[in-house]
Structures are given as C-alpha cells and as structure tokens.
Design brief:
This protein is α+β, with helices and mostly antiparallel strands and 98 residues long. The chain is 29% helix and 16% strand. The protein has three helices and five strands, in the order H-E-E-E-E-E-H-H. A five-stranded antiparallel beta sheet has the order 1-2-3-4-5.
C-alpha cells in the first residue's frame, strides 16, 4: 500500500460527508470552522488538503497531525499504522584514477 491509500482510508473513516468532485478533490466541512459549507478538500493523488474559506493549504499528513493532536509526522505514521523502512546510507567506494 502507498501512503495515499492510508490517508484515503483515514479520511473515509473519519470525515463525515466526504464526497468526490469531478476534478479529483474530495470536499468536506472544515472541522475547525463554524460554517458547514464544504469549504475544505483533500486530494489523495497529491496528498494535500486545502480550505478555500481560510486559505489553509498543507499536506494531508500535517492535517491529520492537527486533527488528531499529534506532535510529529512520525506519530502520524504510527497512528495510521504505516511502516517505514529505515534507509541505509549509500555505500561510497573511493577509487583512484591512474
């Protein structure tokens, strides 16, 4: 699974009234705002969230971090149950040119 699949699953399970638009965005009510006018949207292809009323634009992971009160992206990965493999540093071999 890709990260966007986990993000999609989170939004489908946690955001009420999420609906797909014709241009690839899924609109929903801003949980931080008073008006319930579907001003927020998430795009799973680009993994970003924006709100037309407030001008907020952030990654979907940052948005989940704000909604759930998490303190880091690492905590968001744990919350979404995403396993990230550690990356090994590249092997550098020194050679001499003669």
């Amino acid at each position: 699974m890709e990260i966007r699949d986990y993000i999609y699953a989170y939004f489908k399970g946690s955001v009420k009234g999420l609906y797909h638009t014709s241009n690839g965005w899924y609109r929903f009510d801003n949980p931080f705002g008073r008006k319930k006018d579907k001003s927020s949207a998430v795009n799973f292809e680009f993994c970003c969230v924006l709100d037309w009323r407030s001008g907020i634009r952030m990654s979907a992971l940052e948005y989940i971090m704000e909604l759930e009160g998490l303190s880091s992206i690492t905590e968001v990965f744990k919350f979404l149950d995403i396993e990230i493999s550690p990356v090994s540093p590249p092997l550098i071999i020194e050679t001499t040119v003669s």
